[in-house]
Design a protein that fits this description.
It is built from five helices and eight strands, in the order E-H-E-H-E-H-E-E-E-H-E-E-H. It has a single domain (24-197), classed as Peptide methionine sulphoxide reductase MsrA (Peptide Methionine Sulfoxide Reductase, Chain A, 2-Layer Sandwich), CATH 3.30.1060.10. The strands form two sheets. The protein has a six-stranded mixed β-sheet, with helices on one face. The longest helix has 19 residues, at 147-165. It has 215 residues and is an alpha+beta fold.
């Protein structure tokens, strides 16, 4: 949730908070739902993608429920401040966006289906917000780790853009970048599988209600 007020513009790199050299979650516990490590190693063939789609609590829940997902975690990505805290990210002064790491078995769950859940579970046209959550930390982004993911991200974006444009939605604002151009920093322990620990906790799914076409 946005507990530090609206942040409607990206912080400049030289104005970002300094962060820290040590992680805020130095000893991650196993996934409470899937029973797997949230940092790996995972079985051979497992692929990883990083998805930002608003508040990461509800986004992570969507993915741990998908058959073929090996592990999920929540963290911060796409910004400037290393190893930020949640409070720092919510200040809008890190450039980071709330992100879900999804490790999946592509023989059981295709990249298309991973991205179908992404596009259909939030509104990718809202820029620096999702629903009532306002700030650069809620922007939409896909951080890819393979050429196939990168291609599929762009194909599905273009297909979804045509669908939602027909319903009057503005342009998609989702960033599509290589994960190698950024660093994923795990969030604090209490955020990991938050909605398993707090079943009645906050969820924000400001979706369009429109389906991604079959490709």
């Amino acid at each position: 949730m946005n507990i530090f007020g609206a942040k409607s513009s990206m912080v400049a790199p030289d104005a970002a908070l300094p962060g820290r050299s040590t992680p805020v979650l130095p000893s991650p516990a196993p996934h409470l739902v899937l029973g797997t490590s949230i940092t790996g190693p995972w079985p051979d063939g497992t692929e990883v993608i990083y998805l930002a789609m608003g508040c990461f609590w509800g986004a992570e829940e969507i993915y741990w429920r998908l058959p073929g997902v090996v592990a999920t975690s929540v963290g911060y990505m796409g910004g400037f401040s290393p190893n930020p805290t949640y409070e720092e990210v919510c200040s809008g002064r890190t450039g980071q966006t709330e992100t879900v790491m999804v490790a999946y078995d592509p023989s059981l769950l295709s990249t298309y289906d991973v991205l179908k859940a992404f596009w259909e579970s939030h509104d990718p046209t809202q820029g620096y917000r999702q629903g009532n959550d306002v700030g650069t930390q809620y922007r939409s982004a896909i951080f890819t780790t393979t050429d196939e993911q990168d291609e599929m991200a762009r194909l599905t974006r273009d297909a979804y853009a045509r669908v939602i444009a027909d319903r009057g939605y503005p342009d998609i604002t989702t960033e599509i970048v290589r994960a190698s151009d950024s660093t994923y920093y795990l969030a604090e322990d209490y955020h990991q599988q938050y909605l398993y620990k707090n079943p009645n906790g906050y969820r924000c799914h400001a979706n369009t209600g429109l389906a991604l076409p079959v490709l």
